[in-house]
């Protein structure tokens, strides 16, 4: 599987390149390093799901009760499918904590739900610049690229997700779905 393609738009290539070359250098602290090491060694999807929950709990720690409240309001608005409110809450979170990747990722999800793919990609790129191991942001990038009929770059994004989270079922399904069209059929 080729992990980098030359047909990527420069902005997407930069995001994927950043993730590829920053993964070993990511400095999220000992706890995140330990969780990602455990995720890599997980024996089955059940173990991986437990570790994934722990990673997501760590990602949601903003360090500020006020920012946690904005994040919760944004997530709640997403669940209610009130995407305009979600964009407002995550936008406020980004304004007050621009170095917090989850704010960018949350707003990207809301933009995507409203069909604003360009804005979603921009926010996903920012989230990945802040946290190169944010595999859900990478997965979202892959989904958008696939919807934009860019199967090669989507395949690459899903492949990076699987490098970070080998048991990510949706990324594995996407790789399987895209494999024949991207890699062709061996004769």
Notes on the structure:
- With 187 residues, the chain is mostly helical.
- 74% of the residues lie in helices and 0% in strands.
- The protein contains ten helices and no strands.
List descriptors.
single chain; about 190 residues; mainly alpha; globular; disordered N terminus
Short recap of the structure:
The protein has 10 helices and no strands.
Please tally the β strands and state the result: 0
Give start-end ranges of low-pLDDT stretches.
Answer: 1-8, 18-28
Main sheet record: none
Structural class: mainly alpha
How helix-rich are the residues, as a percent range?
over 70%
Question: What layout of secondary structure does this protein have?
Answer:
Blueprint: H1 10-22, H2 30-41, H3 45-59, H4 65-79, H5 83-96, H6 101-113, H7 117-130, H8 135-147, H9 151-164, H10 169-183
């Amino acid at each position: 599987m080729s992990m980098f393609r030359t047909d990527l738009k420069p902005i997407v290539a930069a995001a994927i390149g950043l993730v590829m070359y920053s993964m070993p250098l990511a400095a999220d602290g000992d706890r995140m390093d330990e969780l990602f090491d455990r995720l890599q060694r997980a024996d089955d999807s059940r173990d991986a799901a437990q570790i994934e929950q722990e990673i997501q709990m760590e990602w949601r720690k903003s360090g500020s009760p006020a920012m946690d409240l904005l994040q919760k309001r944004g997530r709640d608005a997403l669940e209610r499918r009130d995407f305009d409110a979600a964009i407002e809450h995550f936008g406020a979170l980004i304004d007050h904590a621009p170095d917090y990747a989850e704010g960018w990722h949350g707003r990207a999800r809301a933009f995507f739900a409203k069909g604003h793919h360009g804005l979603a990609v921009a926010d996903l790129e920012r989230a990945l610049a802040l946290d190169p191991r944010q595999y859900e942001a990478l997965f979202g990038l892959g989904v958008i690229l696939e919807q934009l009929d860019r199967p090669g770059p989507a395949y690459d994004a899903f492949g990076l997700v699987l490098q970070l989270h080998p048991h990510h079922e949706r990324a594995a399904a996407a790789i399987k779905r895209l494999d024949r069209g991207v890699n062709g059929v061996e004769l």
